[in-house]
Write a structure and sequence with these properties.
- The chain is of the alpha/beta class and 404 residues long.
- The chain contains 15 helices and 13 strands.
- α3 crosses α11, α4 crosses α5 and α12 packs across α15.
- It binds 4'-deoxy-4'-aminopyridoxal-5'-phosphate.
- InterPro entries: Aminotransferase_I/II_large, Asp_trans, NHTrfase_class1_PyrdxlP-BS, PyrdxlP-dep_Trfase, PyrdxlP-dep_Trfase_major, PyrdxlP-dep_Trfase_small.
- Homodimer.
- Pfam families: Aminotran_1_2 (PF00155).
């Protein structure tokens, strides 16, 4: 009997497992619409110019490789918090925001979960966090691993391929006061469906009235509309209403820094003493998890955000990425019509950000994978960033063929 005989083969990750299958596929026209990573119109990974320029400057500066502080470099944290919150409710100017660097969005969510599990006074015994249905699949294991029970609230309406606003409001209203509610700040993953500003106002009023704790996952700031301020509207509005949200940022998508693993966790509090106490506890948790964050990504982000020219270039480049995705939405709808599809695909154009929740069934997805070598998650989510001038026609034909 071997020591590890009882360890069984686990299932592949629902998203990254697809990339593994795609990589093994030898079909020349295969298409990967699984993972949410931006590709240029040639289907190639894209390094932003502002990032390349920042890296040149960093190389020229001959910096050392000492450990970063546990919470990450101050110039990074200040710039990151400002990008997310700007002057909302004067929270930053009043020194009542704690910001720690995180191992991208995933790590920020995980540290937030650990903090909540230890310090939040949950109204329910099993320490629940309420997630929209559907949500990013990794939210569930992240919070479970922190001892927090993922539960759901209504979000997506299959009939309209849009927001089930009524269902969402009813569910949030039914929760025990003081519940923890996760909200996607913009470009909801996987649906691409966001509340309008007016709907956000109503959601904020309800969440405040119910004294729920809003936890914003902001993985796509800049990517939804191409405008960083517009995409931070909900987060800032909640602050303006006097709420104290958690805001988790990622630089994977908007700066294309996927593999650098850089992000931040911001906790808005009532005063600088509280901010300081929370920072001290987060540091204790981080020290035990990974000790200190990686330095390179944080340096890139700080260099870009703290330099006027590079910052302006970033805004332009994020806008261009968002625009390319929007134009592919239009093209895909046009190509579906050209291919002869009589179905209503208009939601592809209405949805926002990196993803399109196509409405394709699990069986149709399976056929796209096995017959057409087009890889996407079984819930029918298409990563629009993988669609290009070169494959949009092929994709449309295949989608029509499996749905006709
Ligand atoms: N939240 C959401 C909603 C996401 O879609 C993602 C990335 N797919 C993340 C968080 C985290 O990504 P990362 O860890 O690369 O920042």
């Amino acid at each position: 009997m071997s020591l590890w005989a009882h360890v069984q083969q686990g299932p592949p990750d629902p998203i990254l497992g697809l990339t593994e299958a795609y990589n093994k596929d030898t079909f020349p026209n295969k298409v990967n619409l699984g993972v949410g990573a931006y590709r240029d119109d040639e289907g190639k990974p894209h390094v932003l110019q502002c990032v390349t320029e920042a890296e040149k400057r960093l190389l020229d500066a001959h910096l050392n490789k000492e450990y970063a502080s546990i919470q990450g470099p101050k110039d990074f944290r200040d710039a990151s918090a400002k990008l997310a919150l700007a002057d909302a409710d004067n929270a930053l100017a009043e020194g009542r925001v704690t910001t720690v660097q995180s191992i991208s969005g995933t790590g920020g969510l995980r540290v937030a979960g650990i903090f909540l599990a230890q310090f939040y006074n949950f109204p329910n015994k099993d320490r629940a966090i309420y997630l929209p249905t559907p949500t990013w699949s990794n939210h569930l294991p992240i919070f479970r691993a922190c001892g927090i029970e993922p539960r759901t609230y209504s979000y997506y309406d299959k009939n309209t391929c849009g927001l089930d606003f009524k269902g969402m409001m009813q569910d949030l209203d039914k929760l025990e006061n003081g519940s923890v509610v996760l909200l996607h700040a913009c470009a909801q993953n996987p649906t691409g469906v966001d509340p309008t500003p007016e709907q956000w106002h109503e959601i904020a009023t309800l969440i405040k009235q119910k004294n729920h704790l809003p936890v914003f996952d902001m993985a796509y700031q800049g990517f939804a509309s191409g405008d960083y301020d517009k995409d931070a509207y909900a987060v800032r509005h909640f602050c303006e209403q006097g709420m104290l949200p958690f805001v988790i940022q990622s630089y994977s998508k908007n700066m294309g820094l996927y593999g650098e693993r850089v992000g931040a966790l911001n906790v808005v509090t009532t005063d600088p003493q509280q901010a300081s106490a929370i920072e001290s506890q987060l540091k204790i948790m981080i020290r035990a998890l990974y000790s200190n964050p990686p330095i390179h990504g944080a340096r890139i982000v700080a260099t870009v955000l703290n330099d006027n020219d590079l910052h302006a270039l970033l805004l332009k480049e994020t806008h261009a990425m968002a625009d390319r995705i929007t134009s592919m939405r239009t093209r895909l709808v046009e190509e579906l019509a050209k291919a002869g599809s009589k179905l209503d695909w208009s939601h592809i154009q209405r949805q926002i950000g990196m993803f399109c929740f196509s409405g394709l069934t699990e069986q149709e997805v399976q056929e796209l994978i096995s017959t057409y070598h087009i890889y996407l998650t079984k819930n029918g989510r298409i990563s629009m960033a993988g669609v290009s001038s070169g494959n949009v026609e092929y994709l449309a034909h295949a989608m029509h063929a499996v749905t006709a």
